[in-house]
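> tool_call: predict_assembly(chains=four)
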Amino acid sequence: MDVGDDVEDAIETRAEPRRGRRPARRRTIDEIEEAGESGGALDLSGLTGVVGYTLRRAQMMVFEDFIRRFAPFDLKPAQYSVLLVIGDNPGRKQSEIAAALGIQRPNFVAMLDELERRGLAERTRSTTDRRSHAVMLTEAGRRLLDAAKAEQARQEADLGAILGPGGREALVALAKRLTAAG
Amino acid sequence: MDVGDDVEDAIETRAEPRRGRRPARRRTIDEIEEAGESGGALDLSGLTGVVGYTLRRAQMMVFEDFIRRFAPFDLKPAQYSVLLVIGDNPGRKQSEIAAALGIQRPNFVAMLDELERRGLAERTRSTTDRRSHAVMLTEAGRRLLDAAKAEQARQEADLGAILGPGGREALVALAKRLTAAG
DNA sequence: TATTGTTATACTCTATAACTATA
DNA sequence: TATAGTTATAGAGTATAACAATA
């Protein structure tokens, strides 16, 4: 498989935009305003090559797109991820689901309350340890999740088209490297 | 330049983990608990290939690392980006800086207040339009920004080491594609 | 009228301490 | 004594409406 060559297409090959040192003498405000620099676009070259900044902007774009797409399901990214993980791990403890998703246990209570209120998930007291709640999807939750998964597959496909051949897989692999290193 | 081949090293070539259809009959909670599935790690395969999820986790890792590194400067990512853009665009209007960074104008007021309080930036009433504030760095702001830039370059280098040869540049290019498409 | 900076406000996310019931 | 779920609460971050000064 020749992923590398495909990915190459998705990459700007030119070097970072050069942003040389500022001149030693600082200009006065009047000089700057005289230069007519108040009209055009701002110089953002200092940020465009930064991993954290580009990652944040990209993530925001993807999440906004997600929220738009999932408006018919009334699901936000965090809710979708919760349904997905419950669906793949039925009967696990509430706290296990939360921990796997990096959600604080107290904050997970309200999330589950809402999913339960909507009849998508349900808590059951464990028979073996009456402290813990086993969490599962309801039939309605399973149906909604299946529909949501289909929409999610469409988003991945659309993002794949934006990113070019091999680009989506490359992006996911690189992002995972960072997560694993954290 | 052979970015593609280098990037290939950074990519998992195996296909998405297959997550087949669930069996038609749903198991009872007792059956699940009997199966002893409450002990091991959770199945997160449904999320690991998703662009939005991996992007979010990666961005969080990078930001947490940033906050740790910049603790001596007492700068959070948003504050650093503001100083950087002001430094590269001295004398521009407050609202222009905010808009360039995607910050709402009302929320930018408190941010600038804080930077001004710390003596890092300053507002000056424009002589040509007395409604607007021209924003600039102070000498102290410039010095802090220069030191912060050096630390930021170290972070990029460290992230580059994690991402492998060409990986950092590939990640930035792919992330920018998404931002541009939004 | 429109724009700039500002205030007030509200809503979402996230983080921590402490309670309860069970173990 | 420790753990699971919960409550209360506080802090960020973000979004909108409306106002004063100015254009």
